Amino acid sequence: MSVVHRLTVGWLVDHLSFINQCGYEICDSFACPGGVTLNTSVRSTEDCHGSSTFVATSSSSSGPTHSPEDAIETEGKTAKMRYVFREEFFDISKPHIVAPPEEQLCQGCPEMSLTEIKVCLIFFFPCRIIWIFFFFHCLLILQKRKRKCLFNQGELDALEYHSKVRKLIWEGTLHLVQEGLKSGFLHQRTAELSCRKNNVPVVCGLAELCEMAKQFPAVNEGDHRAVYVLEDETSSPEQDLLSCVAENASNHAKIIVLMGQKYLVPPKSSFLLSDISCLQFFFYKKKYDVIVIDPPWENKSVKRSNRYSHLSSWQIKQIPVPTLAAPNCLVVTWVTNRQKHLHFVKDELYPHWSVKTLAEWHWVKITRAGEFVLPLNSLHKKPYEVLVLGRVQGDVKEALRTSEGVLPIPEHKLIVSTPCTLHSHKPPLTAVLAEFIKPDVECLELFARNLQPGWTSWGNEVLKFQHIDYFTLLQKE
């Protein structure tokens, strides 16, 4: 279970445990954990069966090397191999920036008004040298931007929002962290620096592949295959995966090879690898009861770094959520801490989709020792992100029928977890949303970079974090 503790204020979540409970276990007549795998079906234990035939397939993914002598056919014997997500990607033992003692989570939460925040913000720095550096840095900003005040309107709006949610986040996180420390899930002061390296040189050309797919000839709806069912073969034609929803309907996971790279696909999951301009869900003809959206928000740092493509507000509004949503669909949107984006979602985007805003939740990022990864009052980045929850509005009778037996969405909840060090690897929402939706509903994630059982995922890098190099192969049984 990914939820470690549940309190009134929210949930303490184990993201790593959720991934590893998806069941990435190979069970076959023969399986070689190196660069050669013969039937690449990944199955749970109860689906294992013996067989003696196989066809060798090469892969470019890195892993333990094995000599040819290891590849010996074993008739009637079942080999089991289990993949787990690499633990070092969640090995955050110390904060990225250590907060001064008065700002640390274990201390009390002093009341701060917006005026006090504006006047005293720079005094949270722990030493005079940093204060002096910050002072001159502000002078340079003033000269460069020719400002009349230290903060622009967007920064002032962010400070005002922070002043409203700060106490809720502080106190709620403290209660969840205390429970985590009591149970032993969190370990205070065992936050030694790890010497393990977590930078895996994964080659991901999925976005480029989707860009190339724009040149594919248009497909008519009449002769279009809506679903491509993943079988036990190792390689899948790129055009098949780029032209329709790929579905693993079995009770076991599978490995697919795309552009020479191996990707793990969990059981009972579906995905569409495509650019937003080639969104083919209309052919899928499904309606979703939950839609989670993590848009690539447009901002200056993204433009400068050129790490990934971004969408303007106008482009995000074109996402066909009303077409994809079932009656009373729950819509959850991840929002950065820019107030411009938050206001856009609540005041423009949701009304455009006929979605009524119900609540704002926060994902709070902590270390394994229970500390904020960044000081709560940090000027640059905050240790939390916002989720805006709403429901599609439509027929009142249908909405009442579909909402029977589920709890109403509460106004404020916290999802507290140790974040993944991989950029934009969001925590799973399956367990935290369970009490607010009916069981066995259709769930969709847009702009996803990983897969999860029971969900359909879409994005131009939807398989990115499913790459086999992000996983560790446990001992073969």
Automatic annotation (TrEMBL):
GO biological process: what's one of them? methylation
User: What keywords would UniProt list here?
Assistant: Membrane, Methyltransferase, Transferase, Transmembrane, Transmembrane helix
Q: Does the keyword Glycosyltransferase apply?
A: no
Out of the domains of life, which is the source? Eukaryota
The protein's matches in PROSITE patterns, at most eight in alphabetical order, are given as: MT_A70, N6_MTASE
- Keyword Transferase among record annotations: yes
In terms of InterPro entries, this protein maps to: DNA_methylase_N6_adenine_CS, MT-A70-like, SAM-dependent_MTases_sf
Official protein name in the record: Methyltransferase-like 4
Q: Which organism is it from?
A: Manacus vitellinus (golden-collared manakin)
